[in-house]
Design a protein that fits this description.
With 499 residues, the protein is mainly α. Helices cover 74% and strands 0% of the residues. The longest helix is centred in the middle third of the chain and has 35 residues, at 315-349. It is globular and about 65 Å long.
Amino acid sequence: MEQNRPQWGSRAGFIMAAVGSAIGLGNIWRFPAVAYENGGGAFFLPYLFALLTAGIPLLIMEFTMGHKYRGSAPLTLTRLNKKAEWLGWWQLAISFVIATYYSVIIAWATSYSFFSFKLTWGETPQDFLLGDYLQVVEAGQFGGFASGVLLPLVIIWIVSLGILVSGIKKGIEAATKVMLPVLVILFLIVVVRALTLPGALEGLDAFFQPDWSKITDGKVWIAAYGQIFFSLSVGFAIMITYSSYLPKKADITNNAFITAFSNSSFELLAGFGVFAALGFMAQQQGVPVNEVVSSGVILAFAVFPQIINEFPVANGFFGFLFFASLTLAGLTSLISIVETFVAGLQEKFNISRTVSVLVGGGLAAVISLLFATKGGLNFLDVTDYFINQFGVVFAGFVEVILVVWVFKELDALKQHADSVSDIHLGAWWKFCLKFVTPIVLAYMMFDNIRQNITAPYGDGSYSASFLFTYGWLVAAAALVVGVILMIIKPFGKQGRGEM
């Protein structure tokens, strides 16, 4: 299994890469909104509980699987049990879909980095975003390319694939060692500036003010588990692939704890920055903080430009820092996402790394053009929702059920993790993976299906056929592709091409 296997040059390199993939572009705006909507300061109790009972146990399990079986998700799961290869390909298909639209959001952030200098978005940033920049048309229409998105998208793919072609040490690790510290420094500058703005304390008070009445609401706890599950990048092959490059004696458990708590620390930092800025915006407009709170694309590309407009000094400079940090956060995650299916193709078909990057990454780049059209925002919105809610969550649930209950590998994985780790796994780890995690994920799946039956996604703004084609069908296609790739042909003797 070890022949020609690449490794991280150092433990720090692995942790930086793992943390970089976990931080992601979405965490900068997702966590603050989720926390605010689910009890503010009180949300940190279920969040910490979810981290300790699902996030870290799942992370340790995936780190151990990749480290023990030394392969991408399909090869790792094949070595764990020959009947499980399809699951690995399903996870890679999910990563592939995410890469196609995630790259486009990074392209937006790249454009906005340069828009910041002259505040190109003007006095009505949301109108600029939807009208002038993305030129959004009705759902289901393509409308030709949004010209402003194409060039940055091409640059993002050239940079990402260039880093991936260079390999693990000289490519991913070297790039991450530069990008992650720069990302943290840039974002720290933005946060510190936000904290010094008038109204920042009111924003932080709104963010941290605990609403203890919500602690008894089951939806708040599900939201905490959902946030942990998505933010740690578990369930869709990234952590299995990354940990397969760890040296034989790497401390798995300690690395998992460092990765998890580093990610949570960045989420908290994002909360400080976002709500300090929202407090400033609320004061400038003379309204309560809750009237300016938003999330997702609108928060990043419409609300924040509006906040930047109001900055008393050097607003263009701080706007650049903010969107540059979004770009770097996105790049570190995109590289890790693409690495999952690059490694899978390389092992499956015994091809060189360069060929697997050009084929896998090149195909993702071509398909990403769909989301660079004038109808791209609608395609992106629906695809992102369904591939996450009915792809990532479902695949994670199936992974836990198969590994823990069907193949009964938990004891073997515990033994392997303990053999290389200073912190030995106790009964809590097995209990969480046997009961807590699968029960929570099963309920999340049930609740997602129930909600989409009673009230289809989009509040009526999308037709049933559009939701089916670009939502349900995409999520189902990822599973079908996983099964097809398992059937195509067996792995070669080494299970890996030239590195």
